[in-house]
Amino acid sequence: MNFPENVKYTKEHEWIRLEGDVAYVGITDYAQAQLGDIVFVDILPEGETLAADEVFGTIEVVKTVSDLFLPVGGEILEQNEALADQPELVNKDPYGEGWLIKMKPEADADLDSLLDAAAYKALIND
Question: What is the pLDDT of residues 31-82, one digit of tens each?
Fold first, then answer.
């Protein structure tokens, strides 16, 4: 199981990585392993502005569909177009090529309220 130190985690198993004023968001290695083979990813369109913990899309596996929750409030700037043809990238590389969206977090977005790698690891090992 992979727990990168350069991302923040949510209790709902999403991660967020800030790069300048843009953030990448995806699901954790733990989440993709629990879900199984991902067959489809459906994300809200660019330009949508959502609050923290709002649903920004769904991820579909063979037997179920799971909601995706935004870690912090902000605007969706881009969705990972590669996932349209290769949703399995989320399984293969959840913190790299399998990212889901790029977003512009709100100015007051509190990334420090999210979990660090150690806290997330403790959460899923309970």
Answer: 999 999 999 999 999 999 999 999 999 999 988 999 999 999 999 999 999 9
Closest of 44, 58, 62, 59 to residue 103, by C-alpha: 44
DSSP 63: S
Residue 42's H or E segment, with its range, is strand 38-43
With cut-offs at 50, 70 and 90, classify the pLDDT of residue 88. Answer: very high
For residue 4, count other CB atoms closer than 10 A to its CB.
14
Q: Which residue has the tokens 């999403």?
A: 14
Q: What's the first-to-final CA gap in the chain, in angstroms?
A: 15
Query: What domains are defined for the chain?
Result: 8-107 (2.40.50.100)
CB atoms under 10 Å from CB of 31, counted, come to 22
Q: Would you say residue 110 has pLDDT above 90?
A: no
The residues that bridge with 41 in the sheet, in sequence order, are 59
**Are 78 and 46 contacting, i.e. CB atoms less than 8 angstroms apart?**
yes
Q: Are 38 and 66 in contact (CB under 8 A)?
A: no
